[in-house]
Write a structure and sequence with these properties.
The protein is of the alpha+beta class. 24% of the residues lie in helices and 35% in strands. The chain folds into 2 domains: 112 residues, Rossmann fold (3-Layer(aba) Sandwich), CATH 3.40.50.980; 114 residues, Immunoglobulin-like (Sandwich). The strands form 6 sheets. Strands 8-11-12-17-14-15 form a 6-stranded antiparallel β-sheet, with helices on one face.
Length: 260
């Protein structure tokens, strides 16, 4: 019978229980975590996943940099019998992220990336569950877009920082099977100012509207985040956007899903 990753990990714990398995820097010094300690933490994560309804063979995504929590969460979801669908923080294009989430039938997401959100997509505390901004981003991508992805040709300015640069905007266009209903997700990465997006409605066979309904996720500043006591500082909001000569103005530092 073939051995699983958990079988091999259990053997290592039995053999090297008191030895260091992970090292991570805290307060300027590397702190060790033994095999036995990792197993205990992984079991807690597995139990937590089961407690929130994750079932064996369900797919769970992990978005993380190299850190202890990444390894522990991988082990935890395997202890829960789930299937891991890793996501790289280097997935800069939103359509790559959506493709992986959709095609893997991901049912839940764990986030341990300081670049994305220093405390993860959700935070469980004694009074309930806090949904952080990352949670809302994934929720909008997974639940507000249509079933089929449509090719796009996005022309955008560059956002420059030192020697590095990236497109100011990123987008995903989706439609229903008949091509009669569209959902366009657009990210404006500029932290300071809004940008105009021109949409070729004619190419999609859509009469140019005067207004479009949309859902917006943005804060009053790029540094805004949700925390206990301020759970709704950054949450999706419904807005009506005016269409001027085929263009829509997108707020600074925002994710917008437009429906038409």
């Amino acid at each position: 019978m073939k051995k699983t990753i958990i079988d091999l990990f259990e053997q290592s714990v039995e053999k090297f229980g008191s030895r260091t398995f992970l090292l991570e820097k805290h307060d300027g010094a590397f702190q060790p975590t033994t095999y036995a300690e990792c197993k205990q933490e992984a079991l807690k994560i597995g139990a937590g996943l089961a407690a929130i309804g994750i079932k064996p063979k369900q797919t769970v995504s992990i978005l993380a940099e190299g850190c202890n929590n990444w390894i522990l969460s991988e082990l935890g979801l395997l202890y829960a019998g789930a299937i891991s669908v890793p996501l790289s923080i280097k997935l800069e294009e939103a359509n790559d992220l959506l493709f992986r989430l959709r095609h893997a039938d991901v049912v839940d997401i764990a986030c341990f990336s300081p670049i994305v959100n220093t405390t993860g997509a959700i935070f469980v505390h004694k009074d309930g569950i806090l949904k952080r901004t990352t949670y809302h981003v994934f929720d909008m991508y997974v639940n507000m877009l249509e079933e089929y992805m449509v090719p796009t040709n996005l022309r955008t300015e560059r956002l420059v920082h030192g020697k590095a640069s990236t497109g100011v905007m990123d987008c995903i266009l989706t439609s229903d099977k008949e091509g009669t209903r569209y959902a366009l997700a657009v990210v404006n990465k500029d932290p300071e100012k809004s940008h105009s997006l021109n949409i070729d409605f004619e190419e999609m066979g859509v009469k140019m509207p005067k207004k479009i309904s949309g859902t917006v996720l943005c804060g009053s500043s790029p540094d805004d985040f949700n925390e206990v006591g301020a759970e709704n500082r950054v949450v999706p909001e419904e807005r009506i956007f005016e269409v001027k000569d085929g263009s829509v103005e997108l707020p600074a530092h925002s994710l917008v899903v437009l429906k038409f």
